[in-house]
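Lab notebook, bench 4. Still working through the backlog of constructs that have no structural model yet. Next entry is a single chain of 289 residues. Request: give me the structure tokens for it.
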Amino acid sequence: MTAESKRSPVRVGILGVGAVTQVVHLPMLTERPDVDVVAVSDPDEMKAEALGARFGVPRIFSDEGILNEDDVQAAVICTPNNLHESLAIEALERGKHVLVEKPLAMTAEGVQRVLDAASASGRHLAVGLNHRFRPDVGALTSFVAGGELGDLYAVRANSLARRVPSAGSTWRQRPDEAGGGALMDLGVPILDLAFWLTGYPKIARVTAVFRTGEAEVEEAATVFAVSESGIAFSVEVSWNLFAEVDRHHCRVMGTEGSGSLPPLDIHKQLGGRPMDVTPGVTPSLNGEN
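Model written out:
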């Protein structure tokens, strides 16, 4: 028996049972042998109880109840954005590892406070920027980091969500709880992807154009940024795509090649001709796709 197989599962509590918990965290974590989801919390107690019963979670607590529970080793924070900072700091101070959905906090100063709390606690802190861990992103990042695409000069990315009828506003449409609209919701992860692929270069200047609608927050935005090394970034996000499916795409342009995803497609110049050098990627296991 290996040391890995002897290790006890990490006991996890999930704060908030909204869409990302229902679609991502609960299905993924409850099927992993190295994780034991022991509790969930939500202001809507009936919804929390229903999801707990569906996924075999034994206990329903308040947010404070999970953080007070010594049996919980790690907290997954999926609450409205304005609660991320305070809950993350409290969880860290109580000795728990923390995975918090983006954004980490509503301000740069808030982010620094969470980082300081993590450093002082000696516990692990992670943000739910899942694009970084996709197999196709890893493959394209390797080509970029190895210089196989030459000097980078442009990155274009978009995250466009279909317009869907809504019965009413949620916390995502309220600036005091969300901190922003489509740019905060869709823009944070797609901007992170664009910068992650290129090694997070220093940005020299930024311009953004916002489109507002009926809500108090932006429903669409386009961000233009230029790095100190001259890479031009163009990122577009919207909650109002008129199409059959959502669209998410990223393309990296270099002097010797280019790459895009999804699907992963990489071409580079070989012998004076563009050649398809797209590698095969191994799908992730345990629900990580």
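Notes after review: The longest helix spans residues 182-197. The CA atoms of residues 175 and 217 lie 6 Å apart. Flag for follow-up if needed.
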